[in-house]
Amino acid sequence: METRSNHVLVGSVVLILIAVMALFLVWIARWGAGSDKEYDIFFKQSVDGLAKGSAVLFSGVPSGQIKEIALTPDPQFVRVRISVGRDTPILVGTTATIQGSFTGTSTIQLDGAQKGAPPIVCPEQNPLADCPNGVPTIPAKQGGLGALLNSAPKLLERISTLTERLNEVLSDKNKASITGILANTDRLTGALADRGPEIAATLAETRVAVQQAGEAAKQIGTLASSTNSMINEDIRPQTKHLGETIASAKKSMDTLSEVLEQAKPGVQSFSKQTLPEVGALVHDLREMSQALTGVAERLDRGGAGSVLGQPRLPDYKASK
Predict the structure, then answer these.
(1) What share of the chain is helix, strand, coil (3-state, %, to 5)?
(2) Are residues 179 and 217 both part of a single domain?
(3) Domain annotation covers residue 24
(4) Are residues 162 and 146 in the same domain?
(5) Cβ count near 299 (within 10 Å)
(6) By residue range, what is the domain housing residue 175?
(7) Does residue 25 sit within a domain?
(8) Domain Mce/MlaD: where (predicted)?
(9) Residue 300 falls within a domain, yes or no?
(10) In this structure, which long-range contacts are made by residues 152-155, counting pairs with CB atoms below 8 Å and at least 24 apart in sequence?
(11) What is the DSSP annotation of 166-215?
């Protein structure tokens, strides 16, 4: 009876110790978990390779693990909750990327924190806008290898399309055309090689022609300069004198116009009164001239007596 009582007592003590140890371990676990900080990351890409318990790295240093992976009401995003140590500097500017590997295991890489920036926390006003699930949110961006792996299907599709188009370009018909083009190009280069001396001579003649054109242009420039000098030295002074002469002639014409204007009344009086009298005088002089002419002729024929007396009758002789 006493032996059974001792076994029961020992068993009870052992059970009590085990229960206390379990409670201590649970408390330690809760205390350790309570010292971590939790954040949500919303990835707009596949999270293939991530799993609950996967490592979270900050600048390559292990800093926590993934606590939960879940879908969101928006099918474009996947929510990943992580837990990191309290000493991890999750500051404004920190971003999260999925660091993939060819072995199939992926991790979350945190970087981009800037010294002096405030920590990422839920705002006191309207916290659900930045913290829809009660914890701060770290912005996500596509990583190099992750973005490459995500774009691999599209890349393969484009490579396949490019290969098909290359096959179309390198069809038998196009190959024959390309062969003809290459043959024609070969013949053209051969012809150019044969005509090499003629081409060289043509180039030399062209060079001489260009040189002569340059000399002609130089001579034209010299001629233009000489013409300009002649215009400046000879023609422009003469033009100046001509302008002075024209101005003097104009002044003389203006003076003559004034004189004519002043003489206009006298000219009109002369034309109306004097001209008729002069006409009558000329008529009288003309008649007097004719009379004098007749007298002179009579003097020539009969002398002075013909003028003073009657003219003599001719002698009459009787016929036998």
Answers:
(1) 60, 15, 25
(2) no
(3) no
(4) no
(5) 13
(6) 153-193
(7) no
(8) 43-111
(9) no
(10) none
(11) HHHHTSHHHHHHHHHHHHHHHHHHHHHHHTHHHHHHHHHHHHHHHHHHHH
Tell which of 90, 119, 150 closes a domain. 150
Between CA 40 and CA 140 the distance in angstroms is 10
The letter for the amino acid at 187 is R
Pair 96, 177 in one domain: no
- Residue at 149: amino acid letter: L
Q: Global pTM?
A: 0.41
What does each C-alpha distance from 296 to 141, 275, 292 come to in angstroms?
Answer: 148, 31, 6
Inter-residue contact 93 to 139 (CB < 8 Å): no
CA dist 78 and 71 (Å) reads 5
Closest CA to 89 of 58, 60, 61, 66: 58
Residues 162, 156: Cα–Cα separation, whole Å? 10
Domain assignment present for 29: no
CA-wise closest residue to 67 among 79, 80, 77: 80
Report the number of distinct structural domains present in the chain: 3
Sequential pLDDT tens for the chain (320 residues): 456 556 667 777 778 888 888 777 766 655 555 568 999 999 988 888 889 999 999 988 999 999 999 999 888 899 999 999 988 899 999 999 988 766 668 899 999 888 889 989 888 888 777 788 889 999 998 765 555 656 666 777 888 888 888 877 777 777 788 888 888 888 888 887 887 788 888 888 888 888 888 888 888 878 777 766 666 666 556 666 666 777 776 776 777 677 667 666 655 665 566 656 666 666 666 776 676 676 666 656 655 455 445 555 455 455 44
Inter-axis angle of helices 196-230 and 172-194, to 10 degrees? 70
Buried residues in 148-176 as b, exposed as e (16+ CB within 10 A): ebbeeeeeeeeeeeeeeeeeeeeeeeeee
Beta strands 55-58; 107-111: pairing state: parallel
CB 110, CB 95: distance < 8 Å: yes
